[in-house]
Design a protein that fits this description.
Elements: H1 2-9, H2 11-21, H3 23-42, H4 47-75, H5 81-110, H6 112-133, E1 139-141, E2 147-149, H7 159-168, H8 170-201, H9 206-233, H10 238-258, H11 265-276, H12 278-281, H13 283-292, H14 298-326, H15 332-339, H16 342-368, H17 375-387
Antiparallel strand pairs: 1-2
Transmembrane segments: 25-44, 50-69, 114-134, 180-198, 210-230, 242-259, 265-286, 298-323, 335-353
Domain Major facilitator superfamily (MFS) profile: 1-357
Subcellular location: Cell membrane
Length: 391
């Protein structure tokens, strides 16, 4: 939990630093922090030393993901950027899955210290690879024909002014609301309450619960690229996609929580599939920053948006824990009411998406003359065209 709090708390400072020094510098420094954190964890023999190591890991993690996201708009065309963002998240999940088995084997076979030392040197290798191969943007030719790397843009404004300017744009708030609403339930389930809910709230065996969590991870990997393609093809319908993701995530919760007893296994499997959609769905929020913010403030905007889901997850984790405490511990009825605490959080997020979307569309109309019709109107018109047999 400490590592998560550090990760979320550093998103905005990291975004500001990315805008100032470029993503490559922060990627290298973040990988170095990961190396130091894992190295320190290998030799930690007390709670304070373990806390310091976790702080380093949280800081490094915060820098790496944000830096990779920032490089995508510089290297890929706009219609491919959403897909590359999804593939970045997918590769991160694949890395977690791939590292879990060998790391668990190393931990069991060789012990704590050798396992974490090995992990630390993987991070060190990542830092060296970033030094050698990563650039902020592609090489460009100067007037003389020579190649150079374009330096990151920087407007020189004070930090507080940059953050205020980023927050003042409704697209940042729409991205944050999207990230908050689509991903909070997914994060809450994956990071804290998923396994206890499955084993106690749904009375699954350990192997059954593990199988459900595996289904959860696989679904996220499959859905991500599809959402990336749709986001790139339909940029004016991103908020509709986000609302659809929230509906897909919350409707199974409503059905299961309405049952007077444990749900059948097939319904739990559907819940796993639907919750997992929220992870890839949260990347839609980053795309609002990419298309509306100037490049020299894109890192800060991404950092602000990325705090949304983690803030929502921390809020949901806390609310669920409070309800469980009120019931005196784990039970079917306790989890039934505790998990229902997610519903008002989702409703709050949906209202925020709707409000900020209206602001973004009004600004788009005023500044660029682009008017985005409601999706219902578009569907109704296309239906009438199809019904009347017109091309």
């Amino acid at each position: 939990m400490l590592q998560l709090v550090v990760y979320a708390g550093l998103q905005i400072p990291v975004g500001v630093l990315i805008d100032r020094f470029g993503p490559r510098a922060l990627l290298i420094f973040g990988s170095a922090l990961m190396f130091l954190g894992q190295f320190a964890l290998a030799f930690a023999e007390s709670v304070p030393s373990g806390i310091v190591a976790r702080l380093l890991l949280g800081g490094g993690d915060a820098m790496i993901f944000a830096s990779v996201l920032r490089t995508i708009p510089s290297w890929f065309p706009p219609d491919r950027a959403p897909l590359m963002t999804q593939l970045t998240g997918m590769l991160g999940q694949l890395g977690q899955i791939a590292s879990a088995i060998p790391f668990a084997w190393a931990l069991h076979s060789f012990g704590w210290r050798p396992a974490f030392l090995a992990a630390s040197f993987v991070s060190l290798f990542g830092a060296l690879a970033a030094v050698l191969f990563v650039r902020n943007s592609p090489l460009r030719r100067t007037d003389t024909g020579s190649l150079r790397v374009v330096a990151p843009e920087f407007d020189g404004a004070p930090i507080t002014e940059r953050i205020k300017a980023v927050w003042a744009h409704p697209a940042t708030r729409l991205g944050m609301a999207t990230h908050f609403t689509t991903s909070f339930s997914t994060m809450t389930f994956a990071m804290m309450w998923g396994f206890p809910y499955l084993t106690v709230g749904q009375a699954l065996t350990g192997p059954q619960a593990s199988a459900m969590m595996t289904l959860f991870a696989i679904t996220s990997l499959v859905v991500g690229p599809m959402l990336g393609i749709l986001t790139g093809r339909h940029p004016y319908r991103r908020s509709n996609m986000a609302i659809g993701v929230v509906a897909v995530t919350m409707i199974p919760w409503i059905v299961i929580l309405a049952l007077p007893s444990a749900a059948p296994l097939w319904l739990v499997a559907i819940l796993m599939i639907c919750i997992a959609v929220g992870g890839p769905g949260s990347a839609i929020g980053f795309d609002f920053a990419r298309t509306f913010m100037p490049s020299h403030r894109l890192g800060t905007a991404t950092g602000v948006i990325n705090t949304g889901g983690f803030t929502g997850a921390l809020l949901a984790i806390l609310c669920i824990g409070v309800v469980l405490d009120l019931f005196g511990g784990y039970s079917f009825e306790a989890f039934r009411w505790a998990m229902a605490a997610q519903l008002p959080i989702a409703l709050l997020g949906l209202l925020a998406i709707r409000h900020t979307r209206n602001q973004v569309r009004a600004r788009l109309t005023a500044e660029e003359g682009i008017e985005v019709e409601p999706l219902v109107v578009v569907i109704a018109r296309r239906y009438r065209t199809w019904r009347d047999g017109r091309p």
